[in-house]
Design goal:
The protein starts with a strand and ends with a helix. The chain has two domains: about 200 residues, Fumarase C, Chain B, domain 1 (Orthogonal Bundle); about 290 residues, Fumarase/aspartase (Central domain) (Fumarase C, Chain A, domain 2), CATH 1.20.200.10. The chain has 18 helices and nine strands. A three-stranded antiparallel β-sheet has the order 4-6-7. It is mainly α. About 55% of the residues lie in helices and about 5% in strands.
Length: about 500
C-alpha cells in the first residue's frame, strides 16, 4: 500500500492497511509546498532576530533566555539530547513506526516551520523500515511526548538506536550502510519533532485497531459459549434492541443471530429455561457499549492524527504571518479518550470471564463435566484456565484507573498541569493483551464444550470457526500445558486484527 500523506485526511483504517501491507508513504505536492512556505517564515525570523519561543529563545522556564544567532542549530541538538530521558520497555516497532508517520503528517500541515530535508529523512526512515528504539516510559503527555519523541529524533540525526532488518543497531551505522547522511537539525526543527502527542496517539491507534478487532472476535467466541450452554436466542430479537435507541447494541444483536443461525444447540424462551444469565442474555448491551466507546475514541484519535499540535505554530495569512505560542501539545483530549478506551476493553474481558465460569462450573454448565475434565478428579481439565482469566480480569481493574486524573507540575511550575495520556495509552495496551488472553481462554474452553455437546449441530458459521481453530487447538483428551494453547490462540487473534 502506498500511503499519500497530506496532513489532513489520515485515517485509522489507512494506518491498519499500511501496517498489514508493509506499505510506503509519499508526500502530496500541496503538502510539500506548505512545508516550504512555513520554513521561509522561520528563516525570516532568524534573519530579523525576532524573539520567538524555541527558535531564538530557550525552552520551558528558559523561554526568556535569548540565544546567540550562531547557536540556533546547536540549541535544537541540545534539546533532543537532553530530553531523551525515556526508560523502560520500548514501544513496539509498530507503534514507533506509526509515531513517525503521525509526526510527519503533522509537519505537512505547514505550521511547523521544518525543512524539506527533515520531511525527506522521515520518509526515508519510514519506507526503509528504520524503526527508532523508543523507551515507553518518561512522558507526562504535555509539552508534547517530549522524552519518547526525542528518542525518535535521535535516530534521525544518527545518535539513537534503531531496529533494522531484525536487529537493534546504532542509527549512525545503519545510515552508513545505506549511504545516507544523518539529518542536521536546523532552527525550530528539534522543537517541531518533539512538541506533540504522537507517542500517546500512535499507541492509541494501535490500541484501537486491536480493540475493535478483538470485540468482533468476542462475538463468535461468545456464540460458541451460547451454543454450549443451550442459550436462548429470543433476547437478541431486533425489537428488543431497536427500542433501546443504540445502534451499536442493535448491531451486536444482529451479528449474534447471524452467528447462531441454523444451530441445533440454541433454544427459545421457556423451552429449557425462561431467561439466560446476563453474561449470555446481555451480550448486545455489554459488547455494544464497548463498540460505542470505540466509535468515540476513533473520532478523537483521527482528529488528533491530522492536527497541528506543536509549539509555536506558524500561520501564513497572506499579508501577514503569525507565530503563536500556544498549548496544542497538551494531550488532555487524547488522554481522556484513551482512558475511556480502557473501560471498553475491560468489560469485554469481564463478561468473557463470567461466561468461562458458566462453562466450567458443573452447577451452571448444563450437565457438562466439571471443568470439562476428561476424567474428573484425576485430570483437572480447564480448572486453572478459569483462574488465569480471573487473575487477568482483576489486573485490568487496577490498570483501568484513569491516568488523566493525575498531574504533577514540571519545568519549575512553568508546565504546571499535564495529561499523563501516554501512561493511559500504555496501560490500555496492557489491558488489551490481558483481554485477548481471557478471550483466548474462553475460545479454548468453548471449543471443548461444544465438542462435548456435538460439533455437528453447531450453526454453519460457528462450525467454520470450530474447524479453523481445531487445526491448532486439539480437543482436551488429557491434561496438558494449556499455556501453550492460550498463547497460540491469543497470537492468532492478534494477527487477525491487521487483516481487516
Amino acid at each position: 500500500m502506498n500511503l499519500s500523506l497530506t496532513g489532513e485526511q489520515l485515517t485509522i483504517e489507512q494506518i491498519r492497511e499500511f501496517l498489514a501491507d508493509k506499505g510506503t508513504v509519499e508526500i502530496s505536492t500541496d503538502a510539500l509546498e506548505r512545508v516550504k512556505a512555513s520554513r521561509k517564515i522561520v528563516e525570516r525570523i532568524i534573519n530579523e532576530q525576532e524573539t520567538i519561543y524555541g527558535i531564538t529563545t530557550g525552552f520551558g522556564l528558559f523561554s526568556d533566555v535569548l540565544i546567540e544567532e550562531t547557536q540556533y542549530n546547536q540549541l535544537q541538538v541540545n534539546l533532543i539530547r537532553s530530553h531523551a530521558c525515556g526508560v523502560g520497555t520500548p514501544f513496539s516497532q509498530d507503534v514507533a513506526l506509526v509515531m513517525m508517520v503521525l509526526r510527519l503528517n503533522t509537519m505537512l500541515k505547514g505550521h511547523s516551520g521544518v525543512t524539506t530535508d527533515l520531511v525527506e529523512q522521515l520518509v526515508f526512515f519510514i519506507n526503509e523500515r528504520i524503526i527508532p528504539v523508543i523507551p515507553g516510559q518518561g512522558s507526562l503527555g504535555a509539552s508534547g511526548d517530549l522524552a519518547p519523541l526525542s528518542h525518535l529524533a535521535l535516530a534521525l540525526i544518527g545518535e539513537g538506536r534503531v531496529y533494522y532488518k531484525g536487529t537493534e543497531q546504532n542509527s549512525e551505522d545503519v545510515l552508513k550502510q545505506l549511504n545516507r547522511q544523518p539529518h542536521q537539525l536546523q532552527a525550530k526543527e528539534g522543537l517541531a519533532l518533539i512538541n506533540g502527542t504522537q507517542a500517546m496517539t500512535a499507541q492509541g491507534v494501535i490500541n484501537y485497531i486491536e480493540a475493535e478487532s478483538i470485540a468482533y472476535q468476542a462475538e463468535w467466541i461468545a456464540s460458541l459459549t451460547h451454543q454450549a450452554l443451550n442459550g436462548i436466542t429470543d433476547a437478541y430479537n431486533e425489537n428488543v434492541h431497536i427500542v433501546r435507541n443504540s445502534e451499536d447494541q442493535t448491531a451486536v444483536a444482529a451479528r449474534m443471530l447471524d452467528w447462531l443461525e441454523g444451530s441445533g444447540h440454541t433454544t427459545r424462551q421457556g423451552q429449557v429455561r425462561v431467561q439466560d444469565a446476563y453474561s449470555l442474555r446481555c451480550i448486545p448491551q455489554i459488547h455494544g457499549a464497548s463498540f460505542q466507546v470505540f466509535r468515540h475514541v476513533k473520532e478523537v484519535l483521527e482528529k488528533e492524527m491530522n492536527a497541528a499540535n506543536d509549539n509555536p505554530l506558524i500561520f501564513d495569512q497572506g499579508d501577514e504571518t503569525l507565530v503563536i505560542s500556544g498549548g496544542n501539545f497538551h494531550g488532555q483530549p487524547v488522554a481522556f479518550a484513551l482512558d475511556y478506551l480502557k473501560l471498553g476493553i475491560s468489560e469485554l474481558a469481564n463478561v468473557s470471564e463470567r461466561r468461562i465460569e458458566r462453562l466450567v462450573n458443573p452447577q451452571l454448565n448444563g450437565e457438562l463435566p466439571a471443568f470439562l475434565s476428561p476424567e474428573p478428579g484425576l485430570q483437572s481439565g480447564a480448572m486453572i484456565m478459569q483462574y488465569a482469566a480471573a487473575s487477568l480480569v482483576s489486573e485490568n481493574k487496577t490498570l483501568a484507573h484513569p491516568a488523566s486524573v493525575d498531574s504533577i507540575p514540571s519545568s519549575a511550575n512553568q508546565e504546571d498541569h499535564v495529561s499523563m495520556g501516554t501512561i493511559g495509552s500504555r496501560h490500555g495496551y496492557m489491558m488489551l493483551e490481558n483481554t485477548r488472553n481471557v478471550l483466548a481462554i474462553e475460545c479454548i474452553i468453548a471449543l471443548q464444550a461444544v465438542e462435548l455437546k456435538g460439533a455437528d449441530r453447531l450453526s454453519p458459521k460457528t462450525k467454520e470457526k470450530f474447524e479453523e481453530y481445531r487445526t491448532f487447538v486439539p480437543a482436551i483428551t488429557e491434561d496438558r500445558q494449556f499455556h501453550k494453547d492460550i498463547k497460540e490462540v491469543s497470537d492468532y487473534l492478534k494477527k487477525v486484527a491487521y487483516k481487516g
